[in-house]
Amino acid sequence: MSKDPICGMEVNESEVSNKSEYEGKSYYFCSSSCKAEFDAEPEKYIIKEDSSEHHHDH
């Protein structure tokens, strides 16, 4: 199972036809409208694995 990055719905990769690839990673969507929204602005929805930029010095 994967999570639709737009709406957060759980989707089964083997059952969905709405799929995008971005930077070598696959993303699965519950609908074509969620896929279209992701394809328009993928940077807005992807979760960055490098979280070092989120640390703040006090």
Question: What can you tell me about this protein's structure?
Answer:
The chain is an alpha+beta fold and 58 residues long. The protein has helices at residues 32-40, 42-45; strands spanning 2-3, 10-11, 18-22, 25-29. It has one domain. The strands form two sheets. It has a two-stranded antiparallel ribbon. The longest helix is centred in the middle third of the chain and has 9 residues, at 32-40. The mean pLDDT is 86.
Brief summary of the model shown:
With 58 residues, the chain is α+β, with helices and mostly antiparallel strands.
Any descriptors?
single chain; 58 residues; alpha+beta; two-stranded antiparallel ribbon; 2 helices; globular
Question: Any chance you could write out the topology, listing elements then pairs?
Answer:
Blueprint: E1 2-3, E2 10-11, E3 18-22, E4 25-29, H1 32-40, H2 42-45
Antiparallel strand pairs: 1-2, 3-4
Distance between the termini: 39 Å
Shape: globular
**Unreliably modeled segments:** none
Gyration radius, in Å: 13 Å
Order of strands, main sheet, comes to 1-2
Helix content: 10-25%
- Averaging pLDDT over every residue, what do you get? 86
SS elements, strand count: 4
Order of helices and strands: EEEEHH
Report the total helices.
2
Class derived from helix and strand content: alpha+beta
State the major sheet.
2 strands, antiparallel
Work out the strand percent.
Answer: 15-25%
The total number of structural domains is 1
